[in-house]
Amino acid sequence: MIPPLDQNGHLPPGIHEASAGEIGKRFGAFQGSDLRPQLWRRFGEFLREARAAGLFEAILLDGSFVTAKPDPGDIDLVGVVPADHDFSADLAPHRYNLIAARRVRRRFGFDRVVAKSGAESFAQATEFFAQVRGQPGRRKGLILIKL
Predict the structure, then answer these.
(1) 70 to each of 29, 32, 48, 67, 124, how far by Cα in Å?
(2) Which of 45, 60, 85, 141 is the most exposed place for a label (fewest CB within 10 A)?
(3) Are strands 111-116 and 14-17 parallel, antiparallel or unpaired?
(4) 87-144 residue pLDDT tens
(5) Distance from C-alpha of 86 to C-alpha of 2, rounded to nearest angstrom
(6) Is residue 2 part of a domain?
(7) Is the residue at 108 inside a domain?
(8) pLDDT tens digits, residue range 15-72?
(9) Residue 92 in domain
(10) C-alpha closest to that of 90 among 49, 60, 53
(11) Are 75 and 12 in contact (CB under 8 A)?
């Protein structure tokens, strides 16, 4: 379950697991403009392709989309691959298009990082995305979707 946002419009610190349906109801609905539904539609496309490719075991969501901001600019995400993932296997177009930062940015408009589950790269990614911009020392939560 997605916890309530704090007084600053952020999720409480930590990683909060949720289903795509929960996230869509909470953050993908119309809220004064169609930006949220547009972002959610693009994320749905990304998620369908990610599931079909079998590349990620989970996706962490961040960005203004998972805040109280009425007009979010984007979705930031961390694609979590298994700890033993071999990146040389990602050259097939259906996988490369999900792992290449430029392609994800151009096609979906998302900033993404890829990290191995349980690895230092995962810890670094979650620490980076948990920071509150312009507020050193403050932390916010992230949403995890298991695939």
Answers:
(1) 10, 7, 26, 8, 29
(2) 45
(3) unpaired
(4) 887 778 888 889 899 999 999 999 999 999 999 999 999 999 999 988 888 999 999 9
(5) 32
(6) no
(7) yes
(8) 999 999 999 999 998 777 789 999 999 999 999 999 999 999 999 999 999 999 988 9
(9) yes
(10) 53
(11) no
Measured distance CA(36)–CA(54) in Å, rounded? 26
**Residue 87 belongs to what H/E stretch?**
none
Number of domains in the chain: 1
How far apart CA 24 and CA 142 sit, in angstroms, is: 15
Residue 94's domain spans which residues? 14-146
What's the CA gap between 62 and 13, in Å, rounded? Answer: 12
pLDDT score at 1: 86
7, part of any domain = no
- Alpha-carbon gap, residue 13 to 38, rounded angstroms: 27
AA identity, residue 91: L
Provide the token pair at 92: 């097939």
The reported pTM is 0.90
In angstroms, the CA 124 to CA 115 distance is 9
Tell which residue, 54, 58, 15, has the closest CA to residue 145.
58
